[in-house]
Prior knowledge:
Helix content of chain A is 38%, strand content 20%.
Amino acid sequence: xxxxxxxxxxxxxxxxxxxxxxxxxxxxxxxxxxxxxxxxxxxxxxxxxxxxxxxxxxxxxxxxxxxxxxxxxxxxxxxxxxxxxxxxxxxxxxxxxxxxxxxxxxxxxxxxxxxxxxxxxxxxxxxxxxxxxxxxxxxxxxxxxxxxxxxxxxxxxxxxxxxxxxxxxxxxxxxxxxxxxxxxxxxxxxxxxxxxxxxxxxxxxxxxxxxxxxxxxxxxxxxxxxxxxxxxxxxxxxxxxxxxxxxxxxxxxxxxxxxxxxxxxxxxxxxxxxxxxxxxxxxxxxxxxxxxxxxxxxxxxxxxxxxxxxxxxxxxxxxxxxxxxxxxxxxxxxxxxxxxxxxxxxxxxxxxxxxxxxxxxxxxxxxxxxxxxxxxxxxxxxxxxxxxxxxxxxxxxxxxxxxxxxxxxxxxxxxxxxxxxxxxxxxxxxxxxxxxxxxxxxxxxxxxxxxxxxxxxxxxxxxxxxxxxxxxxxxxxxxxxxxxxxx
Amino acid sequence: xxxxxxxxxxxxxxxxxxxxxxxxxxxxxxxxxxxxxxxxxxxxxxxxxxxxxxxxxxxxxxxxxxxxxxxxxxxxxxxxxxxxxxxxxxxxxxxxxxxxxxxxxxxxxxxxxxxxxxxxxxxxxxxxxxxxxxxxxxxxxxxxxxxxxxxxxxxxxxxxxxxxxxxxxxxxxxxxxxxxxxxxxxxxxxxxxxxxxxxxxxxxxxxxxxxxxxxxxxxxxxxxxxxxxxxxxxxxxxxxxxxxxxxxxxxxxxxxxxxxxxxxxxxxxxxxxxxxxxxxxxxxxxxxxxxxxxxxxxxxxxxxxxxxxxxxxxxxxxxxxxxxxxxxxxxxxxxxxxxxxxxxxxxxxxxxxxxxxxxxxxxxxxxxxxxxxxxxxxxxxxxxxxxxxxxxxxxxxxxxxxxxxxxxxxxxxxxxxxxxxxxxxxxxxxxxxxxxxxxxxxxxxxxxxxxxxxxxxxxxxxxxxxxxxxxxxxxxxxxxxxxxx
Lengths: 487, 485
């Protein structure tokens, strides 16, 4: 890792500690139906309305693999530049819980569907590669609801059997910022692929975070703790900071770290021990005899490869090379597929440089203020493109354009019409401008004299006056030229 | 015309098709005989009134093109039947009424048969004597003190006692063939993947297979033809070309090569069994088959392998019976307490024993030594059969190492009970078809069976061999109706 200002280290006395982080991300597969049943997967449905006999584990019910989910997992693997395993095996992970109807979760243990891959992060000081250990398919459990009744727990099985991809990273991450970049990149790739909507509020993306610390320069890993089921990037970052500092304090205090599973308490901003290694469940993994090993052919994989869209890394490269964007601009524009689509639609018929500035500047600020996604933008790509063309051909000035933009934000109006209706067209007729300027000089005789006697700073005053009188419509370039002559 | 319940399935079908008998007459006869036979304890759930109604409906608009037109039958209580209680012989499912039908039973109703009720069996099909059933043991119609075998003990007893013309059982380690052998009836365990497991209460998923049980080979072939279908709802169902087994049935087995595995001469096997086997070899020769000595060297390891694989799968399959969703629930202080009480009270001793064995062999630290090794041995056992089938078309063995034993005789000695499966479990481990046919009696007059094991998907061949030998053996069951009230 390069030595630079973004390096994340914890200092205690004379010691510097590095934080080592690995993530197990649980990403819900975008799919109409569940991994082994035909039940729907819609978020927010009434409890227990999306449950089949298979999901509720009735006697004699058998799982049947959903081919679409398999395709989604393989596509994700391709997006992670990972090895696709042509043969993978579903195992049973056995444990008892009220929201786990079968008494086991069908998962993949020894032979996952996707093997090693990588994700490239764009950090402020350059790129960083994070290794992917594996990706496997598994069933989600149902949901236990403990707070609806003082004595009973209610169980909602809508989520039971929903397909998840568990994406395990190598312990390559070194700071909360890198975790932030990693999750966002992973999310971006999956959204480009349409394999996971990445909606963290709805629980479509959650992570178990493995944290350990070691003295800077050490090659050995420290003992790690796993923080279970963290469902926002912010909480992940807070949990890592707390946990890393806790571990450093223990080491500085001459104590050892117990390998254990911990919970992050979002209210107290601290991690708490959930169970030690000794109390760890014995999941008694074994191949699910109800399912044959999953075998996919080369053709099957090749077909899926042909369906893979241009992914963020490639798109970024293209934007830089073809449109001469800066890496910073390209990163912002490719970060999610909707933004890059919007951008590409705008520049179909308008200037790239102006479009980039208007999208990253005005549009993002306006959307942010209204808390809208790019897909909900009141200004369509076509109309933004028209606005940019009005600036480019001199019909309106950049300043007027901002006024027009504000009106467009109120509803998707054609900028041309706004300019016409409100008479905002730029005044570029030299004769008209001369008349205006003559009047301004006339009205400010004293200042004109001062200017002539050497107070050249007053030039700006005259420009301002002309613009004011013209209602902002005067072509600034022409005003400059004529004023110089007249004064 | 002979008494209705004494007729074979084939005769009944013929008589209904030729309108000599109505479905109502046939159904009434079997219902009445079943009602007089409560002492055998073959039924867990009776559905006689519905059966008679369905028969009446059938007769109003008879479809005589069906394979089982208006034929009444009872089935093992391991098959889920829509709207009719399905218990798997367990207290934990005592109150369970499925809203769905197993594929195998659906296939049967689609061919015109009528459900009379659900037959007793060992709890979750775990047992060789029908003594582990929550609903009590079943008597063998041969003798009131004898077990009918297991786990399909209610099924074998009901067919032998002519309470149902045919039935279906399930066979995980011998649960169709051993009870058939104990009751002088015919039972076929099909190739793994031949019959759908959808809707059958699971015991050990990689071994479980449904199959027909009947009074003769022809009936067995007809029922197998009905139940064996490819089913997308079972991922282990295999899509292969299925025969019309009853139509293609032939006694011409001239030149068929039948293997005799030396490893099946086990220590302590009664002389009667040895003699029966020899007799079987002679019958096969009489039919024109060629006898070839073969070796299945890993036979000795089959039983220990089975008693690792089957309990391992069962321990996981039975985890769903936790009192949360359906079935029996004992109240507890908290979730864990509820689980413990529900499962302690809901499962019987044998089921608990197997769950514990299975949990143990899958535990971390033991998995490699037991489960993984057992899977490797299982492969070796399968390889033995593959090698043998390079030389022979089928294999002939005794079905069981003894005739039916006495009720209570082995209940306190699980290992001796498990030994009963010694000739049948290798067939399940290898996923092959096997049929047991009655072939003689021991000194006490109890029936003894011979097993014919086939290549995978070669049910037709073993049915043919059984059909040919059946004629030569000309077996007669000694049943006196002692229980009929």
